[in-house]
């Protein structure tokens, strides 16, 4: 009898533990736990669960107070942030203004970052500590976007981070946050395990343990959900979307995405490059992508409607800009360049390439939905106008370092403007790369045009919302005309989870345990 009772108790304990655990399938790897090293979607999603920010954003990209319980603009160039009291780090030490000051100094200065966070702090002239729970931030010029910018900068603890390197975060030694979960382990390329922070200052999380598994293969991700190995997956393969919608054991959630997909030419070279040649294989004497006619011709050769219908299977929209409809800065007057093969051939001939040329289009094959399939489809379209295109598809882990070294003549890219405002993409991707000014931190193709730099500067310092949105719309119109990057589609974010859960879909595509609750 005792053995039966013991067995029953073990079963009940196991069921209780399972009920308090959550397993999530990510579609891409978390490359580091260091919240300031690589501004990458999976890293940022993981970081939200371990670290907090002064200001956070909800699923609709709307800011709300977090570690700063409130904030206000004292003048056009001075902001005051009152910090939340009673917050402790995962090791029990108190959170204070000194940690914020340390964070602001460390975030822009992480060595060898492949795309960091300094741009979000570019407007700050100095930070003044009023007391342990009050800071004042002085900006170089009026900067209404400061709260939105700070929502991208995770606050770290000086007492563990001083002198720490990125590897110290990956081992867990420096991964001490104030967030709702603590890091239990990080296995590069495999998974991250989290445990609930029982001393969290906010709402208590229902999950005692959270496992984040990296399931890069689309079929494996779907199979893991169907078998019950994971509770929720992100980035549903478009070929599986209809089937999962019909499954009575599953629920599909979706949201318009702030992530746009584009093609980015290399601007770092003016002379020849071996990845762009004539039809005999001889490098061209000059980089053709500096000629707007070439970019427009390539854009006109792309049938975006076909990309949405045949490649994305409806899980995207055609676009010529970088935010979804209704977002702050979206320009309703701007539409994609019309599909016109003959017009594209005429433009190529006008630019001096009546016979076309050859190029290599680089793409990851495991990072964004249908990334390599989109690249293959575009390559076929370009080949029809005489631009014979070879696709070089590779794992994202190999793609990133080559991208950082400007080794791609043309590449598929994607960017999620997590701020939900038009400035983010301009700052990170389009503006001139400048380590001193902290602009263009993710501008890996080294595009530079003073007109966009001026629009970013003007819009970012415009306090009036209506006037600022007009600047972003002006920037969108110029972008669509010049096409420094060639926009393809705007994603629609999708997730699927087992019944018995409730999930909040996010425009920024981040998958976080805080967005998953047991269904009532």
Q: Can you walk through the features of this model?
A:
By secondary structure, the chain is α+β, with helices and mostly antiparallel strands. The chain is built from 16 helices and 20 strands. β8 (181-187) and β9 form a beta hairpin. The longest helix is centred in the N-terminal third of the chain and has 18 residues, at 2-19. Residues 1-19 form the signal peptide. Keywords: Signal, Transport. Residues 63-434 form the Solute-binding protein family domain.
Feature tags:
alpha+beta; twelve-stranded mixed sheet; 20 strands; disordered N terminus; Peptide/Ni-bd; ABC transporter substrate-binding protein; signal; transport
Short description:
This protein has helices at 2-19, 41-50, 97-106, 146-150, 158-161, 166-170, 218-227, 241-246, 292-300, 304-311, 341-350, 371-383, 396-404, 423-430, 450-460, 465-482, and strands spanning 21-26, 55-57, 63-65, 68-75, 78-83, 124-131, 134-139, 181-187, 191-196, 209-214, 232-234, 250-265, 276-277, 316-318, 357-364, 387-394, 410-416, 486-498, 501-503, 516-518. With 520 residues, it is an alpha+beta fold. Strands 1, 8, 9, 10, 11, 12, 13, 14, 15, 16, 17 and 18 form a twelve-stranded mixed sheet that branches. Strands 4-5-7-6 form a four-stranded antiparallel sheet, with helices on one face.
Task: Summarize the topology.
Elements: H1 2-19, E1 21-26, H2 41-50, E2 55-57, E3 63-65, E4 68-75, E5 78-83, H3 97-106, E6 124-131, E7 134-139, H4 146-150, H5 158-161, H6 166-170, E8 181-187, E9 191-196, E10 209-214, H7 218-227, E11 232-234, H8 241-246, E12 250-265, E13 276-277, H9 292-300, H10 304-311, E14 316-318, H11 341-350, E15 357-364, H12 371-383, E16 387-394, H13 396-404, E17 410-416, H14 423-430, H15 450-460, H16 465-482, E18 486-498, E19 501-503, E20 516-518
Parallel strand pairs: 1-10, 1-11, 15-16, 15-17
Antiparallel strand pairs: 2-3, 4-5, 5-7, 6-7, 8-9, 9-10, 11-18, 12-17, 12-18, 13-15, 14-18, 19-20
């Amino acid at each position: 009898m005792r053995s039966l009772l013991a067995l029953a108790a073990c079963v009940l304990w196991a069921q209780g533990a399972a009920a308090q655990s959550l397993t999530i399938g990510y579609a891409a790897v978390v490359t580091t736990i260091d919240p300031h090293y690589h501004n990458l979607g999976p890293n940022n999603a993981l970081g939200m669960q371990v670290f907090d920010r002064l200001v956070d954003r909800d699923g609709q990209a709307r800011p709300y107070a977090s570690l700063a319980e409130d904030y206000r603009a004292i003048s056009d160039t001075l902001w005051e942030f009152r910090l939340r009291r009673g917050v402790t780090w995962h090791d029990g030490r108190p959170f204070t203004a000194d940690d914020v000051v340390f964070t602001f100094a460390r975030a822009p200065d992480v060595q060898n970052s492949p795309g960091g966070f300094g741009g979000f702090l570019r407007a700050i002239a100095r930070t003044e500590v009023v007391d342990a729970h009050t800071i004042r931030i002085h900006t170089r010029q009026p900067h209404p976007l400061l709260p939105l910018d700070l929502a991208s900068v995770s606050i770290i603890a000086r007492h563990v981070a001083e002198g720490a390197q990125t590897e110290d975060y990956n081992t867990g030694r420096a991964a001490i946050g104030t967030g709702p979960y603590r890091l239990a382990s990080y296995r590069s390329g495999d998974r991250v395990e989290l445990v609930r922070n029982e001393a969290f200052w906010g709402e208590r999380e229902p999950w005692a343990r959270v496992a984040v598994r990296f399931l890069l293969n689309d079929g494996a991700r779907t199979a893991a959900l169907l078998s019950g190995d994971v509770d929720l997956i992100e980035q549903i393969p478009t070929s599986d979307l209809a089937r999962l919608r019909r499954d009575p054991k599953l629920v599909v959630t979706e949201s318009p995405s702030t992530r746009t997909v584009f093609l980015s030419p290399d601007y770092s070279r003016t002379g020849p490059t071996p990845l762009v040649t004539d039809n005999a294989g001889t490098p061209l004497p000059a980089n053709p992508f500096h000629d707007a006619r070439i970019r427009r011709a390539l854009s006109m050769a792309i049938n975006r409607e076909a990309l949405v219908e045949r490649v994305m299977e409806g899980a995207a929209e055609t676009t010529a800009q970088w935010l979804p409809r209704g977002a702050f800065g979206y320009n309703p007057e701007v539409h994609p360049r019309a599909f016109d093969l003959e017009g594209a051939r005429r433009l190529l001939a006008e630019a001096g390439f009546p016979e076309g040329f050859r190029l290599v289009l680089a793409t990851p094959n495991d990072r964004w939905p249908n990334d390599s399939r989109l690249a293959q489809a575009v390559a076929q379209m370009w080949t029809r106008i005489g631009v014979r295109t070879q696709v070089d598809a590779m794992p994202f882990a190999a793609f990133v370092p080559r991208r950082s070294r400007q080794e791609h003549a043309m590449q598929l890219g994607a960017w999620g403007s997590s701020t939900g405002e038009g400035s983010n993409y301009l700052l990170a991707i389009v503006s001139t790369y400048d380590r001193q000014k902290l602009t263009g931190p993710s501008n890996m193709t080294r595009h530079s045009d003073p007109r966009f730099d001026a629009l970013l500067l003007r819009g970012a310092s415009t306090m009036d919302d209506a006037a600022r949105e007009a600047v972003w719309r002006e920037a969108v119109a110029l972008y669509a005309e010049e096409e420094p990057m060639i926009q393809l589609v705007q994603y629609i974010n999708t997730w699927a989870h087992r019944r018995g859960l409730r999930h909040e879909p996010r425009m920024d595509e981040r998958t976080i345990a805080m967005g998953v609750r047991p269904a009532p």
